[in-house]
Amino acid sequence: MSDLHDRIAPPLGWIIAAICGLAFAALASLTWRAVRRLADAQRASAFVERLRGDLAIVSTAVLLTTGAYLFTALAVGLLTPR
Length: 82
Prior knowledge:
This protein is mainly α. It has one domain. The protein contains three helices and no strands. The chain has helices spanning about 5-10, 10-40, 45-80. It is rod-shaped, with a radius of gyration of 18 Å. The relative contact order is 0.19. The mean pLDDT is about 70.
């Protein structure tokens, strides 16, 4: 293996956490789209509007934390002298 590959290889736990986070964010995004279609098809009630907002917040938060894991893993790998 090359030295660069060894330096940027993130820990396995971080990769697993990032994959789980991306999967959760994808599910939240798909659910948000389904709720949006439901709201567009019918007259959106206050509950549906609140649910849309909650799902948008959850999916954004998960994407940000997942991105933080990947960014930190790469930064640690690149900045750690070997």
